[in-house]
Amino acid sequence: MTHETAGNPANAQLSVEQLREKVASGEIDTVVVAITDSQGRLQGKRCGARSFLEDVLGHGAEGCNYLLTVDVEMTTQDGYAMSSWENGYGDMVMRPDLSTLRLVPWLEGTAMILCDVLWLDGRPVSQSPRQILRAQVEKLEALGYRAHIGTELEFIMFDDTYEEAWDKKYEGLTPSTRYNLDYSLLATARLEPVIRSIRTGMEKAGLIVESSKGECNLGQQEITFRYAEALTNCDNHAFYKNGAKEIAAQHGKSITFMAKYNEREGSSCHIHFSLTDLDGNPVLAGDGQHGFSPVMEHYMAGQLAVMQELSYFLAPNINSYKRFVEGSFAPTAIAWGLDNRSCALRVVGRGPSLRVENRVGGGDVNPYLAAAALIAGAIHGIENKLPLEPITTGNAYQSDADRIPTTLREARALLINSEIARKAFGDEVVDHYAHAAAIEIKAFDSAITDWERKRAFERL
Question: Dihedral, CA atoms, 198, 203, 204, 206, nearest 10 degrees?
Fold first, then answer.
């Protein structure tokens, strides 16, 4: 996806030659070299632009191998195979992927490039989220198919800055609207200075914005982008999520992508998924029932079959599971339906636009891991020619379908014992992320919450 011409201001991805020209003219002085960590966050370095061109471009940059094993607070953790005091916390190589080079329009004189993560001997780091997705994409293409996805991230905006929110311990924050603003044009106009900055900033960085809209929770918004091949979309997702926070901070606001910030509606990350052959021809529509092809039926059956065992990759945190409340527009039933938002899999579109919306993930999802899980499910269904279970009509919340796990503890147990996961991803990957889940569970189990204090301080 490297673009060799720079004439279109709506497509600001850069070729190396364009970067050289902008560095020589003084327009670019900084290149952010970034990887995506296990939590889906961008980590890396800001390099001088000349140094990037002369050194990093050809050889990569180094970063401590603990970047894929720390917790949310960047604390080193014992028990990982790839990184520990026993092996000295050595370096990994961040190798730039030229197809991701782009401007960061809201940061002066700045470009960014995303990287693959390698060991010093050139081997890919199998536990890297981007490498995990690459491996699944390659397996799917070996079967003759290519995955296309679109992620729909929701967030909540507050009038407090990030520093003010920290100082308040994230309590008593002021949401940017006072009532349900789902599809409201009046209420969202008040947020437009920030939301427009995000939309235009992303357009100038080469992403194609489809729309923004209000959602149900106070201050809740969704911005959607045009679908793309799986790896490209996940790169865009990570870039957008990081950039949206930076732009909000420049406006004196803060936003959160927590799956469940309060007892009202959670923030989702619905993932639209479709398949083509390697020539780009859609393969999901056909002459079968509901207008499905056999590939569509097998693909959906695979998604349903792996949903419990791979739920961790769509719901990776303690907080993720607070979304799964019946009647909340977050799914609980492992079921599929036609344009049915009570199901985990919602089939939308027809003919060439036929696709499946997976509604399980929250705003905290790591896009690479989520997409890898969806592709692994597709492969499982297609390879085994799994039959598709009957459609769910009506209210899936009241159906007898199997349920999505309700806790991280349950999801971890399903993952660590999953033969499907180990076949799809390998033992190194499964053990790595099962350990990450165990660390998250231990941290939560040892914490004293405000809920406990409010209930117990005086009255128990």
Answer: 130
